């Protein structure tokens, strides 16, 4: 097929190897079977066999029709554990404003993100600008693309809906289309199977991409398929979405229209929106809006970030197309923002990523806000950091650290640079929409700093009568000096009521503050960098500037939690859980050691649905069964295994030295407010070592 035709549609986005998925499968199987993949070809992927859990797509309609996926060993690990928050999408209709849809489409899909339980690549692709996104589509060039749960869990945490993809392309796609559309009954059957998968795995709907020529006689069945899928999704999952991709026309011809018109509107009329191909001209968004009428917000004009055939050129001028789309009052569909990562944009991924998404924010503004509800907790996997333009001109450089040891498993926000004694530097952390009630707010945050570097938080609030307030939550220090330094800048300055040095986390301190702001809406949280002054410093009482030469500043923000005062997490006792081991497999290792593979699964005995979606997994390697209940065994000798977002975890080839008689697997339950159960009170599973 000619390059011109390739550029016309979504096919042009496959830049990764078609074998990427097989590489993941093979490496998982090789790891599980203890084989050297470089020397011995791994066995074919068997979805029924216990192995390192992975995400994978369906390649045939037969897999879809027979519900084969539900029999897979990997199915329970791929269920998303996080639901859309109340007020953040859920069963609600889409917001009545121009929206942003992002189509992942990165290197063929299922790369590092295919490993459900995480991986070791600290440089893996990630998105942390969820406040700029309404809908996220996970895309690959396989027939049925199922989003890995890491994307669904993260997107849902931030109020973003997630869609899988059905794509039929090339000769194989034509054969599948003929089968799917052979009768009205077959169209309905496969629609129901897709809806069933979406509900079972916890994502929110489908992008439909039919990039093959069809016989005109197949169009009525295609329309039935779209209608039935949309209706079934809506009845099964209120608030779900089915989006049609601008591809085949009502005449059965594969011809990308690059706008909404009479050739693709019948498909648009039967679902929740259309993602228009990206080779449109400047007036096409306006023309599409006119055709859509009162549904113009359901028209998502495509932009290829790689820039091939796209209005405005994509890449570092993606904002040119965004500006036109927003001006004409329709929505945007951004293809392949992974361009930044795939093309190694300088100077490094995080800096380039922040710069590129900064273009989106400048053009479109933010579309999500949080916190919206309490409790609110963040370990800064996804802050609202602003891209400052020329960051070298800023006195303090702000970055999210994903590689260094974090405070609580997230990404530390690091502030590093030069700052004078009487200077302050602020950086946005979150844009919120949180109505504050009668109860006081209890705010805690963890900080690590050097020298006299201090870090506080600034809260911006408003009322329905537009009364604005700013509250500064200062770091611990000289209260009088702090008041003198900041009282003119803020409505209120609050000194922390408690400061705790964290013995388990050397260098970290936890600062706790309480405030009352009944009737206010929390709109913004900012970090404030400043310096402490010696105790013998004179209070500044005049308006003359007092400056000093800037010196090195360094502080790290680990996490933040906002609750109503007095709230404590009540964890079910260990005895309330059932924990067991499944698929136990022992193999021999060197010097009398053994290797263990096992699936650990747990659930509450009373069958109630719990609100926990994070579990830390530890193991104690015990030399005698009698030591299992001794508290001294939890003095740090436990080994961290991983984290689970579902109630199961697969351990592959755990090395067990000679002399170990039993293994105590501890499931540390963590709540949405960031609290985790004490290890000695957590549920556990005791497994005797084979032959010990």
Topology:
Elements: H1 3-8, H2 20-33, H3 61-65, E1 100-103, E2 135-137, E3 144-145, H4 149-157, E4 161-169, H5 170-180, H6 184-201, E5 205-211, H7 219-236, E6 241-245, H8 265-268, E7 273-276, H9 284-292, E8 299-304, H10 318-327, E9 331-335, H11 339-342, H12 349-364, E10 376-378, E11 396-401, E12 412-419, E13 425-435, E14 441-449, E15 453-462, E16 468-473, H13 479-486, E17 492-494, E18 498-501, E19 509-515, E20 521-531, E21 551-564, E22 577-588, E23 594-604, E24 614-622, E25 639-644, E26 648-656, E27 662-670, E28 684-688
Helix pairs in contact: 6-7, 10-12
Keywords: Cytoplasm, Glycosidase, Hydrolase
Family: Belongs to the glycosyl hydrolase 85 family.
Organism: Sesamum radiatum
Q: Average the pLDDT over all residues and give the rounded result.
A: 89
Provide the spatial order of strands within the biggest beta sheet. 1-2-4-5-6-7-8-9
Radius of gyration: 27 Å
The rounded distance between the terminal residues' Cα atoms is 64 Å
Strand portion, in percent?
A: 25-35%
* Structural class label: alpha/beta
Instruction: Specify the biggest β-sheet.
Output: 8 strands, parallel, barrel
Number of strands: 28
Low-confidence stretches: 1-21, 28-37, 538-545, 631-635
- Tally the helices: 13
| Morphology call | globular
Residue share in helices?
10-25%
InterPro entries: ENGase, ENGase_C, TIM_ENGase
Enzyme class: hydrolase
GO molecular function, one term: mannosyl-glycoprotein endo-beta-N-acetylglucosaminidase activity
Protein name: mannosyl-glycoprotein endo-beta-N-acetylglucosaminidase
């Amino acid at each position: 097929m000619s390059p011109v035709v390739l550029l016309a549609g979504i096919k042009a986005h496959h830049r990764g190897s078609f074998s990427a998925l097989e590489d993941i499968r093979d490496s998982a199987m090789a790891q599980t079977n203890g084989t050297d993949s470089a020397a011995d070809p791994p066995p074919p992927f068997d979805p029924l066999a216990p192995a390192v859990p992975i995400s994978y797509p369906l390649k045939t309609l037969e897999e879809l029709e027979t519900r084969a996926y539900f029999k897979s060993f990997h199915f329970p690990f791929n269920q998303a554990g996080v639901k859309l928050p109340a007020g953040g999408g859920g069963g609600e209709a889409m917001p009545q404003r121009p929206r942003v849809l992002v189509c992942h489409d990165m290197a063929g899909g299922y790369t590092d993100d295919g490993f459900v339980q995480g991986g070791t690549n600290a440089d893996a692709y990630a998105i942390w600008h969820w406040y700029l996104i309404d809908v996220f589509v996970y895309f690959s060039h396989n027939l049925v693309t199922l989003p890995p749960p890491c994307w669904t869990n993260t997107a849902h945490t931030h109020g973003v809906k997630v869609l899988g993809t059905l794509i039929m392309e090339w000769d194989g796609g034509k054969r599948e289309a003929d089968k799917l559309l052979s009768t009205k009954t077959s169209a309905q059957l496969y629609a129901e199977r897709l809806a069933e998968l979406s509900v079972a795995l916890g994502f929110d709907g489908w992008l439909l991409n039919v990039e093959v020529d069809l016989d005109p006689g197949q169009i009525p069945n295609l329309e039935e398929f779209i209608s039935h899928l949309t209706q079934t999704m809506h009845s099964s999952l209120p608030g779900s979405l089915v989006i049609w991709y601008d591809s085949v026309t009502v005449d059965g011809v594969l011809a990308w229209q690059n706008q909404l018109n009479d050739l693709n509107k019948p498909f648009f009329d039967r679902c929740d929106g259309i993602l228009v191909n990206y080779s449109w001209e400047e007036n096409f968004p306006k023309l599409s809006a006119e055709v859509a009428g009162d549904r113009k917000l359901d028209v998502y004009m495509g932009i290829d970030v790689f820039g091939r055939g796209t209005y405005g050129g994509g890449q570092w001028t993606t904002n040119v197309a965004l500006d036109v789309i927003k001006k004409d009052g329709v929505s945007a569909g951004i293809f392949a923002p992974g361009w930044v990562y795939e093309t190694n944009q300088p100077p490094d991924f995080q800096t380039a990523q922040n710069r590129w998404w900064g273009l989106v924010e400048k053009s479109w503004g933010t579309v999500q806000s949080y916190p919206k509800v309490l409790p609110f907790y963040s370990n800064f996997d996804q802050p609202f950091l602003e891209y400052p333009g020329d960051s070298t001109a800023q006195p303090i450089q702000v970055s999210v650290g994903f590689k260094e040891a974090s405070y609580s498993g997230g990404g530390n926000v690091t502030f590093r640079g030069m700052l004078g004694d009487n200077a302050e530097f602020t950086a946005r952390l979150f844009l919120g929409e949180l109505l504050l009630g009668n109860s006081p707010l209890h705010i805690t945050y963890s900080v690590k700093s050097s020298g006299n570097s201090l870090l506080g938080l600034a809260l911006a609030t408003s009322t329905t009568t537009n009364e604005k307030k700013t509250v500064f939550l200062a770091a611990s220090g000289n209260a009088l000096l702090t008041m003198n330094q900041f009282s003119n800048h803020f409505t209120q300055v609050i000194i922390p009521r408690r400061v705790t040095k964290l013995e388990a986390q050397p260098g970290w301190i936890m600062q706790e503050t309480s405030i009352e702001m009944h009737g206010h809406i929390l709109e913004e949280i900012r970090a404030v960098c400043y310096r402490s002054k010696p105790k013998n410093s004179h209070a500044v009482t005049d308006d003359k500037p007092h400056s000093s030469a800037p010196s090195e500043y360094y502080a790290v923000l680990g996490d933040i939690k906002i609750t109503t005062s007095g709230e404590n997490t009540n964890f079910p006792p260990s005895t309330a859980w059932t924990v067991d081991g499944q698929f136990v497999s022992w193999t021999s290792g060197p010097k009398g050691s053994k290797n263990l593979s096992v699936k650990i699964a747990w659930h509450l005995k009373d069958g109630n649905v719990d609100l926990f979606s994070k579990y830390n997994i530890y193991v104690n390697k015990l030399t005698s069964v009698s030591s299992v209940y001794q508290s001294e065994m939890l003095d740090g000798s436990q080994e961290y295994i991983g984290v689970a977002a579902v109630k199961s975890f697969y351990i592959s080839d755990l090395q067990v030295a000679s002399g170990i008689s039993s293994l105590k697997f501890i499931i540390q339950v963590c709540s949405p407010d960031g609290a985790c159960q004490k290890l000695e009170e957590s549920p556990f599973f005791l497994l005797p070592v084979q032959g010990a």
